[in-house]
Amino acid sequence: MKRMLLLGGVTEALAIARTLGPEHIYSLAGVGRVPTDLTCQVRVGGYGGAEGLAQFIRDEGIGLLLDATHPYAAQISQNAATAACLSGIPCWALRRPAWQPQAGDDWREVSDWAELIEALQPFHRPLFTLGREPLQHLHEIPREQFWTLRALDVYPGNELCEVIGARGPFLIEEERELFERRQIDVLISKNSGSTATEPKLEVARERRVPVIVLKRPVLAGVDREFASVDELLKVLPASDDS
Question: For the chain, what is the mean pLDDT?
Answer without folding.
Answer: 93
